[in-house]
Design a protein that fits this description.
CATH architecture: Up-down Bundle
CATH superfamily: Ferritin, core subunit, four-helix bundle
Pfam families: MiaE (PF06175)
Number of helices: 8
Helix content: over 70%
Structural class: mainly alpha
Strand content: under 5%
GO molecular function: tRNA 2-(methylsulfanyl)-N(6)-isopentenyladenosine(37) hydroxylase activity
CATH topology: Ferritin
Distance between the termini: 32 Å
CATH class: Mainly Alpha
Protein name: tRNA-(Ms[2]io[6]A)-hydroxylase
Radius of gyration: 16 Å
């Protein structure tokens, strides 16, 4: 998946300008993101047992996300960064607030949200490669392909289960992503907006 043509905007330069001063927060929140991504896949796996092809893909995806979580923890340990509680940012919750409650619409929306979040993660990784130290840049470079693949998996299944309004629903979530990324945000996180 080409995330740059999928998303409606790029990460603002103002977010990138503060990253180097926020490495502990970046890594802790990234670890949390990987853990949540695995949990999302597992939740879908438990909820939609009647879709064997989907749950097999989600099982593999969850394992990959947990592997990424372990890798981030390894970087934190090597840099003496303690894994501690970090209040979540607004990004994922704002997207999930717009998920419809009734099936099969709920599944389609959750899959679309998953695709948008994974695409934004991939886009952020590509920007971080340009500004971080070689060790972290190499790590984020190694994640690009899998995050792009995850975004594509979620989008493919949303298309499979979605109806005539799929493009309209995707546009809703992409617009929310754009607004969150381009608007001021008082809490620096991996997916946060413009710091102030």
């Amino acid at each position: 998946m080409n995330v740059n043509s999928f998303l409606l905007c790029e990460t603002p330069s103002q977010w990138l300008e503060v990253v180097c001063h926020q490495i502990p927060t970046l890594l802790i929140d990234h670890a949390n993101c990987e853990k949540k991504a695995a949990a999302t896949a597992l939740n879908l796996l438990y909820r939609y047992v009647d879709k064997p092809d989907l749950i097999l893909r989600l099982s593999k995806l969850a394992r990959e996300e947990l592997r990424h979580f372990e890798q981030v923890l390894g970087f934190m340990e090597s840099r003496n960064i303690s894994y501690q509680h970090l209040p979540p940012g607004r990004y994922a919750s704002a997207l999930h607030e717009n998920v419809r409650k009734n099936e099969p619409d709920r599944l389609v929306d959750v899959l679309l949200v998953g695709s948008v979040i994974e695409a934004r993660s991939c886009e952020r990784f590509s920007k971080l490669i340009e500004i971080l130290d070689d060790e972290l840049a190499s790590f984020y470079d190694s994640l690009l392909k899998s995050e792009s693949r995850h975004a594509g998996i979620y989008l493919d299944y949303a298309k499979r289960f979605g109806g005539a309004d799929l493009d309209q629903r995707l546009a809703v979530f992409l617009d929310i992503d754009r607004k969150l990324v381009e608007s001021p945000d008082g809490l620096f996180r991996f997916h946060s907006g413009i710091p102030y």
